[in-house]
Amino acid sequence: VVPGETALAFYKAKNPTDKPITGISTYNVIPFEAGQYFNKIQCFCFEEQRLNPQEEVDMPVFFYIDPEFAEDPKMAKVDLITLSYTFFEAKEGQKLPLPGYQ
């Protein structure tokens, strides 16, 4: 992905069980310092997703890397940014806090 250009990626999720599962995804960016330059335009994370038994779905994330990434001397040796997701089964009535500073 070229900094400043938008990109679309898909993550696959599968429910291998015989019962419906409702879950929530959280994300992680490695290296940590590059996270400030990673911008999600549209993402499935932090929203409940229901997967039926044996269902497999592709979940999209639309994003870009801030062009300032290329100007940051601390990022000079970074040529790979990894975006990963963890899918957790949601607990009824429990809400995840949205990321941010308070």
Automatic annotation (TrEMBL):
Main location group: mitochondrion
Superkingdom of source: Eukaryota
Localization per record: Mitochondrion inner membrane
GO terms assigned for molecular function: copper ion binding
Xref: Pfam families: CtaG_Cox11
Membrane protein topology class: Single-pass membrane protein
The keyword Transmembrane is annotated on this UniProt entry: yes
GO cellular component: mitochondrial inner membrane
Keyword entries, A-Z: Membrane, Transmembrane, Transmembrane helix
Coiled coil regions in record: none
Record keyword Transmembrane helix present: yes
Role played: Exerts its effect at some terminal stage of cytochrome c oxidase synthesis, probably by being involved in the insertion of the copper B into subunit I.
SUBUNIT field: Interacts with CNNM4/ACDP4. Interacts with RANBP2.
Protein name in UniProt: Cytochrome c oxidase assembly protein COX11, mitochondrial
